[in-house]
Target: Cupin domain-containing protein
Amino acid sequence: MTASYDQYREDRLGRANVADTPERIAYYERLATLGTGALWTVANRIEPWEPASGSVPMLWRYRDLREDVLRALDLVTPEQAGRRVVYLENKGRSDVVAAVGWLYSGLQVMAPGECASSHRHSASALRFIMEGSGAFTNVDGHRMTLGANDFVLTPNGTWHEHGVAEDGTICIWQDGLDIPLMNALDANFYEVHPDLNQAVSHPVNDSTAIWAGAGLRPAGVAWSKPYSPLLKYEWAPTYDALLRYASVTAGSLYDGVLMEYVNPHTGGPVMQTIGASMQLLRPGERTRAHRHTGSFVYQCAKGAGYSIVNGQRFDWQERDIFVVPSWMYHEHANGSDREDACLFSFNDLPVMRALGLYREEALAENGGHQPILS
Ligand SMILES: [Fe+2]
Ligand SMILES: [Fe+2]
Model:
């Protein structure tokens, strides 16, 4: 959209178009002393024609970050740091410490035998395991053991702590939270558990034993919480589900073979404010571009390829993380003709949908592909 077209719309369609005069400037200055302002001086900025995200598309290469993440092991203890995390800062969102939009993300590292203190907060949280063995997360007395590409929830208000077993290895995982959203809403609380570490009061991995049956739900088990009773989504059944689905579907034009992690009790998103998906791009697959409201954080879980976001090409390989801001065109490609590629992602779509704000649009021009600008 050109500046002249915007000007045309503003001239013709009732947008603010008021030139400064000495008299008007004096008036604005007078209003400012009263804690007020003239709406027409800000209307075009605060009411854009369409979402104009302040976030920029970015990619963080794991091979650039990994050594520095590991270095944190020598610099701070989990007790000192609370959480030993290197966070991902979007160039356009450093004021709210967001990776994109209102979503936070970081890379957390723990050594064998370490366990952070138990806490809870208003922010909904997830982790996606990147490397290492022996990691565990406790959520409200449920302990889950975690391996690479496992996805685990620590929903809003649940007591949780993370650690690595004595006989494990150094573990790194990606955290995803809606901390910036909670702060934007002035609704963020944080508490440390009175006992520092909570007791494990259920059999280990009971959440998956009860709720992860394919197409089955346990008879007579009640669940009234507003988040998924399945707290861990393991990689093996997730990948298997993608392969099975891929065997019978052409997939989405925009996402390839995409499956959403769901709350098995409702079929809805895993948490109230954060949704998550895993998608598979077949060998050689290149999707078309679309855009929609909602902010997305992706991690390559398998393979290699590239995505074009707002005209910028980002090449990714396993463990690289990239973001797609709201209402920016994006498309994905598997870089291999032999191997499939998998992208994990989390997003704020449950918020968009709950508030009636979800909107989606395909790129019509150029065969559905963006020209690459950089
Ligand atoms: Fe937490
Ligand atoms: Fe999309």
